[in-house]
Design a protein that fits this description.
It is a single chain. By secondary structure, the chain is of the alpha/beta class. The protein has a single domain, classed as TIM Barrel (Alpha-Beta Barrel), CATH 3.20.20. Helix content is 37%, strand content 18%. Strands 1-8-7-6-5-4-3-2 form an eight-stranded parallel sheet. Helix 7 links the parallel strand 7 and strand 8. Helix 2 runs parallel beside helix 3.
């Protein structure tokens, strides 16, 4: 990158109070968040079961206008792409291990009117980007093993972020580099310094007593990283 990045904070609703989900999303957006991170798990690709397109549509009907970043932790992927696009997703990202034809899935997402992303688990190499980076709008690095919120950040993810940032910077396109898992106020500056510009944070935000204060503290750390 030739200029300082604009950092995006994306609270992960996996850690929200689902009995009050619309209110929770409104609250974090009012507190200064930029993007709604929407985790979809199928109890097959990952060992948990969460939410689907109807909840995404319900948030849109509730009045949420912010970008919705749908992270599909499901296998197979393609069947859900059109459903989430119709439900109001902005970004749809998926894991290469969960798709039989990665480039075809990327094309499905874009043809449905959404921005495609590819997600890399801690043990998944970045080699898939050799074949499809120029077709992506988002690269998501998992800094925990997917399936559950509240896990600790895997520090080796910083090296993967640096490597992904180097690949992205070689492209003449606006591609976000997102990180998901264990992002907190006390490590977000180092994560940004490694190259991430979109920060998915669940328990660090929704588990705090003051969403605005937590997001403001994250912004302060990000400003320090960008200085």
């Amino acid at each position: 990158m030739t200029s300082k990045p604009d950092y995006l904070i994306a609270p992960s609703i996996l850690s929200a109070d689902f009995a009050r989900l619309g209110e929770e999303v409104n609250a974090v957006l009012a507190a200064g968040a930029d993007v709604v991170h929407f985790d979809v798990m199928d109890n097959h690709y990952v060992p948990n079961l969460t939410i689907g397109p109807l909840v995404c549509e319900a948030l849109r009907n509730h009045g949420v206008t912010a970008p919705i970043d749908v992270h599909l932790m499901v296998r197979p992927v393609d069947r859900l792409v059109s459903d989430f696009a119709a439900a109001g997703a902005t970004y749809i990202s998926f894991h290469p291990e969960a798709s039989d034809h990665v480039n075809r899935t990327i094309a499905l997402i874009r043809d449905a009117g959404c921005k495609p992303g590819l997600v890399f688990n801690p043990a998944t190499p970045l080699t898939h980007l050799d074949h499809c980076l120029d077709d992506l709008d988002l690269v998501l690095i998992m800094s925990v093993n997917p399936g559950f919120g509240g896990q600790s950040f895997i520090t080796s993810s910083l090296d993967k972020l640096r490597a992904a940032r180097q690949l992205i910077d070689a492209q003449d396109r606006d591609i976000h580099l997102e990180v998901d898992g264990g992002v907190r106020v006390d490590n977000i500056a180092g994560i940004a310094a490694a190259g991430a510009d979109m920060m998915a944070a669940g328990s660090a935000i929704f588990g705090s007593e003051d969403y605005a204060a937590t997001i403001a503290a994250m912004r302060a750390e990000l400003s320090r990283a960008a200085a």
